[in-house]
Amino acid sequence: MSIxxxxxxxxxxxxxxxxxxxxxxxxxxxxxxxxxxGVAISIATLEKIVGALGLTVELRGRR
Length: 63
Prior knowledge:
Blueprint: H1 3-13, H2 18-25, H3 29-37, H4 43-52
């Protein structure tokens, strides 16, 4: 599952709209939409979004 799909699933599970998540994260609604669609966003922005969902980012190297 992609990062964007995980963000969308977590948002849906919490009953949040993109607008509500954006407000919690301090980003714009289009930024949340871009993250969910897999468009490149900065790590700082990703951390804001996942933090607002109560999640964390874990980076792993490829094997």
